[in-house]
Amino acid sequence: MAKIKVYSTPTCPYCIRVKNYLKEKNILFENIDVSVDEAGLAEMIRVSGQMGVPVISIDGDVMVGFDQEKIDSKLGLG
Fold it and tell me: Torsions phi, psi of 36, nearest 5?
Protein backbone atom coordinates (compact mmCIF):
# COMPACT_ATOMS: atom_id res chain seq x y z
CA MET A 1 0.00 0.00 0.00
CA ALA A 2 1.32 3.41 -0.96
CA LYS A 3 2.23 5.91 1.74
CA ILE A 4 0.39 9.12 0.89
CA LYS A 5 0.68 12.54 2.50
CA VAL A 6 -1.47 15.48 1.52
CA TYR A 7 -0.21 18.87 2.66
CA SER A 8 -3.22 21.16 2.64
CA THR A 9 -5.22 23.96 4.20
CA PRO A 10 -8.91 23.76 5.11
CA THR A 11 -9.96 26.56 2.74
CA CYS A 12 -8.03 25.54 -0.40
CA PRO A 13 -10.52 24.26 -3.03
CA TYR A 14 -7.95 22.03 -4.77
CA CYS A 15 -6.96 20.56 -1.40
CA ILE A 16 -10.59 19.68 -0.75
CA ARG A 17 -10.89 18.13 -4.21
CA VAL A 18 -7.82 15.92 -3.84
CA LYS A 19 -8.87 14.74 -0.36
CA ASN A 20 -12.41 14.00 -1.55
CA TYR A 21 -11.04 12.14 -4.58
CA LEU A 22 -8.81 9.92 -2.43
CA LYS A 23 -11.70 9.27 -0.01
CA GLU A 24 -14.01 8.32 -2.92
CA LYS A 25 -11.39 5.80 -4.05
CA ASN A 26 -11.07 4.46 -0.46
CA ILE A 27 -7.39 5.38 -0.40
CA LEU A 28 -5.89 6.06 3.01
CA PHE A 29 -3.76 9.17 3.34
CA GLU A 30 -2.25 11.38 6.01
CA ASN A 31 -3.57 14.94 5.90
CA ILE A 32 -1.17 17.61 7.14
CA ASP A 33 -2.89 20.95 7.72
CA VAL A 34 -0.04 23.37 7.06
CA SER A 35 -2.13 26.32 8.28
CA VAL A 36 -1.66 25.11 11.87
CA ASP A 37 1.21 22.59 11.68
CA GLU A 38 4.49 24.52 11.48
CA ALA A 39 6.60 21.36 11.29
CA GLY A 40 4.35 20.06 8.51
CA LEU A 41 4.73 23.34 6.62
CA ALA A 42 8.52 23.17 6.94
CA GLU A 43 8.48 19.55 5.73
CA MET A 44 6.26 20.48 2.75
CA ILE A 45 8.62 23.28 1.73
CA ARG A 46 11.64 21.00 2.15
CA VAL A 47 10.24 18.17 0.00
CA SER A 48 8.59 20.31 -2.68
CA GLY A 49 10.35 23.66 -2.69
CA GLN A 50 6.86 25.17 -2.84
CA MET A 51 4.68 27.31 -0.59
CA GLY A 52 1.42 26.57 -2.43
CA VAL A 53 -0.99 23.77 -1.59
CA PRO A 54 -1.94 21.06 -2.16
CA VAL A 55 1.33 19.17 -2.18
CA ILE A 56 0.90 15.41 -2.47
CA SER A 57 3.58 12.86 -1.66
CA ILE A 58 3.03 9.28 -2.85
CA ASP A 59 5.84 7.00 -1.70
CA GLY A 60 8.14 10.03 -1.76
CA ASP A 61 7.14 11.13 -5.28
CA VAL A 62 6.04 14.74 -4.80
CA MET A 63 3.52 16.59 -6.94
CA VAL A 64 2.12 20.08 -6.54
CA GLY A 65 -1.55 20.64 -7.23
CA PHE A 66 -4.36 18.21 -7.95
CA ASP A 67 -3.33 16.19 -11.00
CA GLN A 68 -5.80 13.31 -11.13
CA GLU A 69 -4.04 11.57 -14.04
CA LYS A 70 -0.70 11.60 -12.25
CA ILE A 71 -2.29 10.35 -9.01
CA ASP A 72 -4.10 7.56 -10.88
CA SER A 73 -0.90 6.59 -12.68
CA LYS A 74 1.16 6.51 -9.50
CA LEU A 75 -1.49 4.45 -7.66
CA GLY A 76 -2.30 2.15 -10.57
CA LEU A 77 -5.89 3.36 -10.86
CA GLY A 78 -7.65 3.28 -14.16
Answer: -125, -15
Q: Does residue 78 form part of some domain? A: no
Q: Is 42 exposed, middle or buried (0-12, 13-18, 19+ CB in 10 A)?
A: exposed
Reported as a single tens digit per residue, the pLDDT across 34-62 is: 999 999 999 999 999 999 999 999 999 99
User: 3: which DSSP letter?
Assistant: -
Q: How many domains does the chain have?
A: 1
What is the spatial distance between Cα 31 and Cα 20, in angstroms, rounded to a whole number?
Answer: 12
| pTM for the full predicted model | 0.95
Residue 44 and residue 7 in contact, taking contact as beta carbons nearer than 8 Å: yes
Number of helices and strands in the chain (H, E)? 3, 4
